[in-house]
Amino acid sequence: MAINAEVSKNDGESPVNLIRRFSKRVQGAGLIPSLRNRRYHARPKSRLVIRKKTLKSIKRRAEVQELIKLGKMIEKPKRGGRR
User: Fold this and answer.
1) Are both 35 and 15 inside the same structural domain?
2) What confidence tier does 2 reach under pLDDT thresholds 50, 70, 90?
3) φ and ψ at 5, to 5 degrees?
4) Quick one: which of 61, 65, 62 has its CA closest to 75?
5) DSSP character at residue 30
6) Number of structural domains, the chain?
7) pLDDT tens digits, one per residue of 13-36
8) 32-74: pLDDT as tens digits
9) Residues 33 and 56 in one domain
10) Considering 21, 34, 36, 39, which has the largest number of Cβ atoms within 10 A of its Cβ?
């Protein structure tokens, strides 16, 4: 997908004006947002990876609860509350 933003110099036009026209053309074509979307695109995680991560967190949560019951770990106070 190649979109070209091309401008040609008019008679008696200053280089600054030419750069300004080019910038306006690029903005009008919407090139910058589309390039940023492509640059920072991350692949969606597979179902297997999501499941493994969820199972790992569930296992860790159960271990922490067990340690709290045995008295080997102190329970953190809940954050927030009613206002």
Assistant:
1) yes
2) low
3) -110, 105
4) 65
5) T
6) 2
7) 898 999 999 888 888 888 888 888
8) 888 888 888 888 999 999 999 999 999 999 999 999 999 999 9
9) no
10) 21
31 and 20 housed in the same domain: yes
Whether the model clears a pTM of 0.85, i.e. scores above it, the answer is: no
Print the domain residue range for 24.
9-41
**Which among 30, 42, 40 has a CA at the least distance from the CA of 1?**
30
Q: What is the pLDDT of residue 20?
A: 92
Look at the block and give the residue holding tokens 């969606």. Answer: 44
Do 37 and 15 share a domain, yes or no? yes
Q: Residue 39 and residue 30: Cα distance in Å, rounded?
A: 15
Q: Is the domain of 35 the same as that of 57?
A: no
- CB 33 within 8 Å of CB 59: no
Beta strands per DSSP E along the chain? none
